[in-house]
Amino acid sequence: MSTSSQALSDEDVAKVALLARLALSEAEIARMTGELSKIVGFVSMLGEVDTSSVAPLAHPLDTQNIFRDDLPTPSLTTAEALQAAPRHDGECFLVPAVLGESGAA
Amino acid sequence: MQLLELSAIDMVAALRQGDITAVQCATAFLDRIEATNGSINAFLAVDRAGALERAADIDARRRAGKPVGALAGLPVALKDVLCTADMPTTCASRMLAGFRPPYDADVVARLRAADAVFVGKTNMDEFAMGGSNENSAFGPVRNPWDLARAPGGSSGGSAACVAADMAPVAIGSDTGGSIRQPAGLCGITGLKPTYGRVSRRGLIAFASSLDQIGPMARGAADCALIMETIAGHDPGDATSLDVAVPRYTDLLDKPLAGVRIGRVPEHYAEGLDPEVAKGVEEAFAVLKAAGATIHEVRLPHAKYGIPTYYLIAPCEASSNLARYDGAHYGHRSSVGHRGSGKAGSAFESPLVEMYCRSRAEGFGPEVKRRVMLGTYALSAGYYDAYYAKALRVRRLIRQDYLDAFQSVDLIGGPVSATPAFKLGEKTDDPLAMYLVDLYTVGTNLAGVGGISFPCGFTKSGLPIGFQLQAPALGEPLLLQAADRFQRLTDWHRRRPRPTEARS
Fold first, then answer.
1. Does the distance separating the beta carbons of A66 and B330 come in below 8 Å?
2. What per-residue confidence (pLDDT) applies to A104?
3. Which B residues 214-253 touch A at CB under 8 Å?
4. What is the dihedral of CA B341, B347, B351, B353, to 10 degrees?
5. Which is catalytic among the residues B136, B158, B178, B358?
6. Are B347 and B487 in a shared domain?
7. Which of B80, B291, B383, B484 meets the CB 3.0–4.6 Å disulfide criterion with B121?
């Protein structure tokens, strides 16, 4: 774990912003670089804890996967599922082109 | 006694006996909200028409001798993180401005079936991320005890509305302290139940391994009453516990003789305000006088709670909030999406550009910060060093609690290091704001329950909060101990001076 005060560069932050699907301005990236570096520096204190023989704990309870019978149950209608969609055609959600440069949806 | 000051238990009884009607009750609180919300900003939506219609229906059924629910006519405020089919649900985010969910959260459905009357949706930190309510996209909530101060967060609206008599009961959610810390800073009682005790279906997800819903009210007895309605198994939430729900209100009136309460030296590290420390010590003395015994217990990994939490919660948030894509519901950027056509670059396609712009426009700064932090900590090359490391330390933190509960029944201590801080005091320093969760995140990481209630006031008149934590499913003892404390003290009955006159 890095503990330097500037753990991230602007390039790192721009890359993470694309992964996170966030369009950040250059000013936002610069500010975020400073803030995230400070936070990452702080959380890096976990490095001092010896966890070599400790398994990760993803969930606080001892419950295992819970399965239900594979039976149809009531669910949202198409109209209900689409009611809050920014754009739809009554059957499907409409989005811009997945590939290429055009697509005005 | 004034209707507005009745406890929820007394109000339900008065409604049952016909001393007051549900319409009178709803009207009194709606009028109070109308007079006060301008200065407090606790509510994002108020449903006067819906509440009065529902109250009239309950009164009519009662007059006709038809069955009514266990909470018939009780006004309840809902944190705006809970889905309601008949009211907007925004999570205090521009991303969900005007959003109307197609279904009720399980908790909302249970309260509806019990004939509670929803007065409105309460303000909060955006997507429940924050400890001051200043991250709301719709303006901060003001603390009824001092309008220049924060109510805490993220359930700040729920805490403030109860403190200011705008509702006798509010529902909150607690991921790292979001019920207990604002309850402490606003001088009310808030219960964070054991993880899985209350269904999270229809709770807009922040960090799924930590989120839990709970009641906020003036006293522990009222929290017990609400728990009887909202707790219980829900097949629609795979993390919901299939364990019978006790009659919490029947288990309250018991002495504390023989109850062992732990006092944790780690709680008294630097940063604890002297007036808070004094209030907490006095609370221990009250519990001791009530028959409990006080023992020192250690939580050796307590200082790693904040860094562990601020890795796990943002990682889970970055995944949960990926659903806000501008396609299915929520905000969509109106900017034309052309795409650059260049793989790996920003806006490699029109669709990716739409995602990126919609999310940048819809999320506020703190939500962006946490999504970025989580995305970074989960990304290739960092996952083991950050996320997996935090999960390992989480196991050690949970083990500390399991060990401590071998020798004590409850753990007591402060809920916050300081009383309510000034609005704007911490907004320039995200890390300083994260530290306000110091005493509360351990409960969530361990998955156990905690309750916070007032144990005194500072010289300047701000409430001081006390916290008790219990092993998993220890809600009966948490409520019993807090209720016993409240039979011996009157801190929870104190009211801020009239807020209309102070704005």
1. no
2. 47
3. 235, 238-239, 241
4. -140
5. B178
6. no
7. B80
